[in-house]
């Protein structure tokens, strides 16, 4: 259960999957990369609820990956991938994210694999949903240790101009490219704007009043733990994770 | 493709770009309002690809999915290792991806050549062995010991007759 004062009746992974599923639009092409359990659940939940005609691509799935190979790269380069998911180690005040290393890039404390494509996907997918299973000053920093993707670039660089969002156990943040600032889009039930700001290592734009994220509904929870869980298991889409994580406490 | 470089949308402003001498920013010659990253062509000296079967001309059937043919086309020389040598391989063979002999320099008969990874339909990935490989890669000593035990210390026959896990599909 996320550490708010209000019981949302789910764990952090389920909460993030439910909140991100609401962003998936019907009839659009949405995709997530390899090792993306929470986004996979979000996509399947959207398809099972409000987006039955969404075209979904789950690269880490046995049966739902579509075996696209380079086609997913070309689709994205053409600007035709409408939604893509990313996690990151760090996010900073200027909208940069880091999916590569912690510490000095030449002698890193931690190095992660597979951050390369993020500098392509995050520029050319129309909308990006970031997520992180923790919300604290080590994740939301003044300056990232390594820029895997830049929030703002030279105006001659063609890329998506849509704002991107970051989903955490406390809140939803939105980065607007024209103002180059993060705005507190909504706080999850049980948290205040002050709570979120205290755990964020850079100043947020806080609207007044601040929106409260609608809590997971009965339908979302039961569909996620029923139909979506079954579908993940039957299609080879992180079946062990689905068995372990998507279930009533 | 044989092109000297290729434009790519993305990567500008990242530290990946900053650290890559083989990538630069260049104007789009057809649109003065656009600048893109251009990436230098990658042309390996040698590519080694593993496939299902090949004939003596060098025509081969590679794994069904993946960009193996493109890797071969980018490389100066391409060696294809295969599970089986057959009389003739044609593009009509649907068991995998066809690669023409014009892209292949040499063919090597190497049964179990993908081990400890998989050849779908023939044998499965050996996760326990891959974990052993990863553990061994932490130091030169450990990796030397691994090579001695599983590669250098084995005869050709022992390697060809390795026991792999049966294929799931």
Strand order of the largest sheet of chain B: 7-5-4-6-8
- Poorly predicted regions of chain B are none
Would you give the CATH topology of chain A?
Answer: Glutaconate Coenzyme A-transferase
Largest sheet of chain B: 5 strands, mixed
Helix content of chain A: 25-40%
Largest interface: A-B, 26 and 20 residues
Textual characterization of the structure:
The complex is a heterodimer of chains A (249) and B (169). Chain A has a single domain (12-177, 190-245), classed as 3-Layer(aba) Sandwich (Glutaconate Coenzyme A-transferase), CATH 3.40.1080. In chain A, 27% of the residues lie in helices and 18% in strands. Chain A has helices at residues 12-21, 37-48, 71-77, 118-124, 193-198, 218-234, 239-245; strands spanning 29-32, 55-58, 83-87, 90-92, 97-98, 101-102, 110-111, 127-131, 140-141, 164-167, 171-176, 181-187. In chain A, the strands form three sheets. Chain A has a seven-stranded mixed β-sheet with strand order 2-1-3-8-10-11-12, with helices on both faces. The model of chain B has no long low-confidence stretch (mean pLDDT 93). The A-B interface holds A 67, 69-70, 77, 100, 105, 115-116, 119-124, 146-150, 152-154, 156-159 and B 8-19, 33-36, 65-67, 70.
Task: Record keyword descriptors for this entry.
heterodimer; A: 249 residues; alpha/beta; Glutaconate Coenzyme A-transferase; seven-stranded mixed sheet; three-stranded mixed sheet; B: 169 residues; five-stranded mixed sheet; three-stranded antiparallel sheet; 8 strands
In short:
The complex is a heterodimer of chains A (about 250) and B (about 170). With about 250 residues, chain A is α/β, with parallel strands linked by helices.
Q: How are the secondary structure elements laid out?
A:
The complex is a heterodimer of chains A (249) and B (169).
Chain A: H1 12-21, E1 29-32, H2 37-48, E2 55-58, H3 71-77, E3 83-87, E4 90-92, E5 97-98, E6 101-102, E7 110-111, H4 118-124, E8 127-131, E9 140-141, E10 164-167, E11 171-176, E12 181-187, H5 193-198, H6 218-234, H7 239-245
Parallel strand pairs in A: 1-2, 1-3, 3-8, 4-9, 8-10
Antiparallel strand pairs in A: 4-5, 6-7, 10-11, 11-12
Helix pairs in contact in A: 1-2, 2-6, 6-7
Chain B: E1 5-8, H1 15-18, E2 23-28, E3 31-40, E4 46-54, E5 60-62, H2 68-74, E6 77-85, E7 97-99, E8 106-109, H3 127-136, H4 140-152, H5 156-160
Parallel strand pairs in B: 4-6, 6-8
Antiparallel strand pairs in B: 1-3, 2-3, 4-5, 5-7
């Amino acid at each position: 259960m996320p550490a708010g004062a209000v019981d949302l009746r789910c764990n952090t992974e389920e909460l993030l999957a439910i909140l991100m599923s609401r962003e998936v639009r019907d009839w659009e092409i949405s995709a997530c990369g390899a090792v993306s359990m929470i986004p996979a659940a979000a996509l399947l939940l959207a398809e099972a609820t409000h987006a039955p005609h969404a075209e979904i691509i789950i690269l880490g799935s046995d049966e739902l990956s579509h075996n696209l190979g380079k086609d997913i790269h070309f689709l994205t380069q053409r600007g035709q991938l409408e939604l893509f998911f990313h996690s990151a180690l760090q996010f900073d005040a200027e909208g940069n994210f880091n999916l590569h290393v912690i510490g000095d890039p030449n002698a890193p404390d931690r190095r992660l694999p597979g951050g390369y494509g993020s500098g392509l996907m995050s520029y050319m997918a129309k909308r990006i949903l970031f997520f992180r299973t923790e919300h604290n000053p080590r994740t939301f920093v003044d300056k990232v240790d390594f820029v895997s993707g830049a929030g703002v670039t030279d105006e001659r660089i063609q890329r998506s101009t849509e704002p991107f969002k970051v989903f955490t156990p406390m809140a939803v943040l939105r980065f607007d490219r024209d103002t180059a600032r993060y705005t507190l889009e909504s706080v999850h039930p049980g948290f205040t704007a002050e709570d979120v700001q205290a755990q964020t290592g850079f100043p947020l734009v806080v609207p007044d009043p601040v929106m409260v994220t609608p809590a997971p509904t009965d339908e979302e929870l039961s569909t996620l733990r029923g139909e979506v869980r079954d579908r993940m298991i039957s299609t080879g889409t992180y079946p062990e994770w689905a068995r372990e994580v998507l279930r009533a406490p | 493709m044989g092109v000297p470089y290729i434009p790519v949308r993305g990567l500008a402003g990242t530290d990946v770009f900053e650290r890559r001498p083989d990538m630069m920013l260049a104007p789009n010659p057809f649109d003065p309002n656009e600048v893109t990253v251009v990436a230098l062509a990658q042309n390996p000296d040698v590519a080694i690809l593993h496939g299902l079967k090949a004939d003596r001309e060098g025509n081969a059937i590679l794994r069904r999915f993946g960009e193996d043919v493109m890797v071969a086309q980018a490389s100066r020389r391409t060696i294809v290792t295969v599970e089986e040598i057959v009389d003739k391989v044609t593009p009509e063979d649907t068991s995998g991806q066809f690669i023409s002999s014009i892209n292949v320099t040499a063919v090597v008969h190497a049964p179990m050549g993908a081990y400890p990874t998989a050849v779908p339909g023939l044998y499965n990935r050996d996760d326990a062995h891959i974990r052993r490989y990863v553990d061994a890669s932490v130091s030169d000593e450990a990796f030397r010991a691994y090579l001695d035990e599983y590669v250098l210390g084995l005869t050709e026959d022992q390697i060809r007759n390795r026991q792999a896990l049966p294929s799931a599909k």
